[in-house]
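Hey,

Quick one before I head out. I ran the complex with pyridoxal-5'-phosphate overnight. Inputs first:
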Amino acid sequence: MELNLTSKLPSAGVSVFARMTALANQHGAINLAQGFPDFNPPDELIEYLYEAALNGMNQYAPMPGLPALREQICNRLENLYAYKADPDHHITVTAGATQALFTILSAFVRPGDKVLIFEPAYDSYAPAVISNGGIPEFIRLQSPDFRIPMDELEDRLKKESFRLILINNPHNPCGSVLTEADIRHIAEITAPYQSILVWDEVYDYLVYDNKSHYSALQNSELMDRSIVVFSMGKTLHNTGWKIGYTVAASYLTQEIRKMHQFTVFSVNTPAQAATAKFMEKQPGFFSQLGSFYQRKRDFFLKQLETSPFDFYVPEGSYFALADYSKWYEGDDESAAAKLVGELGVAAIPISAFYHDGYDPRLLRFCFAKKEETLEAAARRLNGRN
Ligand SMILES: Cc1ncc(COP(=O)(O)O)c(C=O)c1O
């Protein structure tokens, strides 16, 4: 007989990503649902991984991350954002951004603490808050361009106290990007309060149309009370390697590391070594990432101009949202199912990114795919097989 247990996450079922992937497989559909590339990381990176494993990098790495990787991360942060980080006190390597976020929440959220989330939101945020005894509170991003409603934020801050505020920039699934002025505005209105700001900047290289990502790292006042989270998986086309990191002032890093030490402790050693070597030897790879993904975005969206789907042009990330209402009048879950069944393309229904099932009738398509995959998907979305 089973034990009498109460789930800590009673409403969490199989994720929408797993459901859509299973449907895609069942129908032999092209899977633009899950957010990962269908192409390999650079060959050199794979060679460095092999070399690291062959040369004995196979035991626990130091708890905060391999020194060589933290060193490379500091160089990157200084070159891109003029942020001078100390590898010993400001950087912690994690098993991807998801673990970084969970560890941050474990380190700072006590039972009953409120955490503010902007929706639509990456699906791990609210469950990670709840697992740690916190209470997720929500603000909806404003249509049509998915901006943060600053007046509402200011109003909520006056009325409630938030232990943490989670901000994703560039944004998944909306593809919106915060400007320097937005970040200054957020800094101003949050300044009087004791909230830690957590910036999920995993898509920081993926900003298009000659704009560049403005990081919270560029605002020194904010960095006294912020933690910034990055993911190598989104950068090196290797989401399966699960390498991420946090950047924060030492008093915050100290608490993150306490929690990291007793949960994950140490992140994949050869993958860290290979990443560090790649960052050192192939700096050119990173500077072309924005144009690499912009070409994919433009290639995909151009072919869909004549389709019944109205695509938003994302400013960043590798996702594009489409309004499907000219093609189908039902809710987004059934639209996604119909898309797989009738057109043979899998996408994510956006209601999955809202805690209350709010349905703006949009589907999310991932364009981190080979041109041939994007071309075949676009053909199907245009009703041609
Ligand atoms: C906004 C956002 N944050 C975090 C993550 C997770 O990153 P990682 O694969 O490094 O855990 C993702 C992955 O899709 C994401 O889209």
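Residues 35, 96-98, 122, 168, 172, 200, 202, 231, 233, 239, 244 surround pyridoxal-5'-phosphate (CB under 6 Å).

Talk tomorrow,
K.
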